[in-house]
Specification:
By secondary structure, the chain is of the alpha/beta class. Helix content is about 40%, strand content about 15%. Strands 3-2-1-4-5-6-11 form a seven-stranded parallel beta sheet, sandwiched between helices. It has a two-stranded parallel sheet with strand order 7-10.
């Protein structure tokens, strides 16, 4: 079977880098605002320029576009609403228009923040959305723009993503743990950590099946296999980090959300139900504890 040609936006982000690192899985084309991709075929493009995006999609002629470009810092989204809308809505609208005009499929990476966090059971794809902050609201607007564009699409909602690349909770914990003897960690927010490489592998596994089975557009959930609090996630990180020889804090102290105020509110409960993804694609949720081990191994060997 001929390798699929896939255009990845936001190629310098941690998920984009994870995808482009899967050698042999596809013919990858990266694009973004900065050029930092070695010898890989890479395009510098301003994704808020609709004409430029249309020209890029027409020129590269991919089978699919995977959009990993986004403003994911939820506190910054509250502080700069226009930048959040630019990154999470306008870019998506331009990509959806270009894909709709050319018949190219669009895969969008979305978030658990489209829900309000007031549930007591894992969220299913069809559950009512009700984002509470700018990040969730702009991501939902981007998802709706895709649905309304008429393009072929797949939206993957995920949560609590961590990776060896970029800035994320796990790397922040390791940095702070090396600097401090005691850390306060929020213990009353529940979610599912998800290893970035597992998301990348899921994407490249799903796309060929979509083509073979001629499946309809839709929304799917993919996240970690076990729910936990941020405190429990940190405990698991430091337990493995200690065994791997990293410097870790002497004490972790569980605190409440109220004791750690932030510009953006976080969902108290953002567990996603991944049974649809398992049933339709045979893809199991991310084993995030194994993901922790992978990140530690890669970070130690990069040093």
């Amino acid at each position: 079977m001929k390798a699929l040609k896939i255009l990845v936006t936001g190629a310098n982000g941690f998920l984009g880098r994870s995808l482009l690192g899967l050698e042999g899985e596809a013919e990858w084309i990266g694009c973004g605002r900065r050029v930092d991709a070695g010898d890989m075929l890479y395009h510098r493009v301003e994704l808020t320029d609709r004409a430029a995006v249309a020209a890029l999609v027409a020129e590269t002629n991919p089978d699919w576009v995977i959009n990993t470009a986004a403003m994911t810092n939820v506190d910054r989204c509250e502080e700069d609403v226009s930048a959040a809308r630019w990154a999470n809505v306008e870019i998506v609208e331009n990509l959806a228009a270009a894909c709709g005009d050319t018949g190219v499929g669009l895969m969008q990476i979305s978030t658990d923040y489209v829900f309000d966090g007031k549930a007591s059971a894992p969220y299913k794809e069809g559950d009512q959305t009700n984002p509470q902050g700018v990040y969730g609201k702009t991501k939902l607007l981007g998802d709706l723009a895709i649905n309304q564009s008429g393009c072929k699409y797949l939206i993957i909602r995920t949560s609590w993503v961590f990776s060896e690349y970029g800035q994320n909770f796990m790397k922040t914990m390791l940095r702070l743990g090396a600097e401090r003897d005691e850390l306060n960690i929020v213990a009353d927010q529940i979610g599912c950590p998800t290893y970035g490489q597992d998301i990348a592998k899921t994407i490249v596994s799903v796309i060929p099946r979509l083509a073979i089975n001629n499946m309809d557009s839709g929304i799917y959930h993919y996240c970690g296999d076990q729910s936990c609090s941020w405190f429990e996630f940190a405990e698991a990180i430091f337990a493995q980090a200690t065994n791997a020889g990293f410097k870790t804090p002497d004490l972790l102290k569980p605190i409440t959300t109220a004791e750690y105020p932030t510009p953006a509110s976080r969902p108290a409960y953002s567990v996603l139900d991944c049974s649809k993804t398992l049933n339709e694609f045979g893809i199991s949720p991310s084993d995030w504890r194994e993901g922790i081990q992978e990140v530690l191994y890669k970070m130690k060997n990069i040093k």
